């Protein structure tokens, strides 16, 4: 029997399914049975997380991602990464979020072990705003044998940030979801009228849940919005709801694990995807489509790429545009049902087994030296 190739990877945050990046990495490696994966994360490790990794190791270096202590923190983290590389003896490293501290530490400690950078989006947003972070992303990407991005639009942004020095090593591999575990609702919408809408994601300025809240106040119909998630903007969002006097039409629900979120999707008529600036892929929009929800989304390049014509686009960061799109969705029942059917077809393009197959093939090519 041929020994499994060993992958070392990780995300420098608490170990659990609390972020889209962690969820998609877990799903991908769970669908790669021909590899043995060691995952580096942070304590606390969520005891309820049924992760798919062969081994999960909690990093010991105290996290200091910003400020004057960053260089000493990175040196210490690099030393720990070097020790773990010696212990686990990987055939390849998957450096998640290239430019963030853990990917830097792994690249600097890699030695002769080949590295594949896997971009998720937040690190690209940071690099676009700050020259120091841009240099860190360039260091990781330049040292990588291959770079993975989930959309062509994100790949183009990485290409631009690196001065087009890595274009021949960037591969677009769309993210996916475990479609076999999803059962879409089978009944069509039958009546026009106010909709029950859902926002699901981090509560920060870029994700812009406030656009959905303000759209509820501006719409011509009395739609309701459930905001699911947590983040630094929660208090400000609650204040905005009170200021607009729509407390009876906006509900806040804490972050839900994926299975619970999926179960609740059946309570809603549509998902609003309100990111205002940068987005890498929009995984929750695909999850909603797979469950039979039409999606109203901000017209960002990556979302147009991910959703194609299977959603209703509005002008990003414009609550009046979102309010108009939601009102139209409520009035036009045949169109709403057409979006449901188109969304189901679109979601079928994003099975996690396809993602894992492409990542597996790329990894094998990098390890055997046949990539590029």
What's the helix and strand layout?
Elements: E1 5-15, H1 20-30, E2 35-45, E3 55-58, H2 70-88, E4 92-96, H3 101-109, E5 115-118, H4 122-129, H5 131-142, E6 146-149, H6 152-161, E7 170-172, E8 196-200, H7 209-218, E9 224-228, H8 234-244, E10 250-253, H9 258-265, E11 270-273, H10 283-290, E12 295-298, H11 301-307, E13 312-314, H12 319-331, H13 333-347, H14 352-368
Parallel strand pairs: 1-2, 1-4, 2-3, 4-5, 5-6, 6-7, 8-9, 8-11, 9-10, 11-12, 12-13
Task: State the gist of this model.
By secondary structure, the protein is an alpha/beta fold. It contains 14 helices and 13 strands. The radius of gyration is 21 Å and the shape is globular.
In terms of structural class, how would the helical and strand content be classed?
alpha/beta
Q: Roughly what fraction of the amino acids lie in strands?
A: 15-25%
CATH superfamily of the largest domain: Glycogen Phosphorylase B
Question: What is the terminal separation in angstroms?
Answer: 29 Å
Could you report the average pLDDT, rounded to the nearest whole number?
94
Identify the overall geometry. globular
Give the C-alpha Rg: 21 Å
The CATH architecture of the largest domain: 3-Layer(aba) Sandwich
List the domain count as a whole number: 2
H/E order of the elements? EHEEHEHEHHEHEEHEHEHEHEHEHHH
Largest sheet: 7 strands, parallel
Spatial arrangement of strands, main beta sheet:
3-2-1-4-5-6-7
- CATH fold label of the largest domain: Rossmann fold
Regions with pLDDT < 50 over 5+ consecutive residues?
A: none
Question: CATH class of the largest domain, anyone?
Answer: Alpha Beta
Secondary structure tally: strands: 13
Q: Roughly what percent helix?
A: 40-55%
Helical region count? 14
């Amino acid at each position: 029997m041929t020994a499994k190739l060993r992958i070392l990877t990780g995300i420098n945050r608490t170990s659990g399914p609390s972020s889209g990046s962690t969820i998609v990495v877990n799903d991908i490696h769970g669908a790669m049975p021909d590899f043995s994966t060691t995952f580096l994360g942070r304590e606390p490790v969520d005891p309820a997380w049924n992760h798919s990794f062969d081994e999960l190791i909690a990093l010991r270096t105290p996290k200091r991602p910003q400020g004057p202590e960053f260089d000493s923190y990175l040196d210490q983290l690099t030393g720990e990464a070097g020790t773990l590389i010696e212990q686990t003896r990987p055939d390849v490293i998957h450096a998640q979020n290239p430019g963030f501290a853990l990917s830097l530490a792994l690249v600097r400690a890699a030695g002769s072990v080949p590295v594949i950078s896997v971009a998720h989006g937040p690190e690209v947003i940071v690099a676009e705003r700050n020259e120091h972070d841009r240099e860190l992303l360039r260091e990781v990407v330049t040292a990588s044998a291959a770079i993975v991005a989930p959309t062509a639009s994100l790949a183009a942004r990485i290409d631009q940030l690196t001065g087009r020095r890595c274009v021949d090593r960037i591969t677009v591999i769309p993210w996916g979801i475990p479609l076999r575990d999803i059962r879409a609702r089978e009944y069509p919408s039958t009546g026009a009228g106010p909709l029950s809408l859902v926002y699901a994601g981090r509560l920060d300025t870029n994700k812009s849940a406030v656009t959905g809240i303000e759209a509820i106040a501006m719409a011509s119909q009395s739609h309701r919005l459930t905001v699911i998630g947590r983040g630094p903007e929660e208090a400000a969002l609650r204040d905005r709801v009170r200021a607009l006097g729509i407390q009876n039409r906006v509900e806040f629900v804490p972050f839900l694990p994926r299975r619970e979120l999926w179960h609740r999707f059946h309570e809603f008529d549509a998902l609003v995807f309100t990111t205002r600036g940068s987005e890498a892929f929009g995984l929750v929009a695909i999850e909603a489509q797979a469950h039979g929800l039409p999606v109203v989304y901000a017209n960002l390049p990556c979302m147009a790429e991910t959703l194609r014509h299977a959603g209703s686009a509005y002008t990003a960061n414009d609550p009046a545009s979102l309010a108009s799109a939601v009102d139209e969705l409520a009035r036009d029942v045949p169109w709403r049902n057409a979006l449901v059917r188109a969304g189901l077809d679109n979601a079928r393009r994003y099975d996690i087994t396809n993602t894992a197959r492409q990542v597996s093939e790329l990894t094998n090519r990098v390890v055997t030296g046949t990539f590029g």
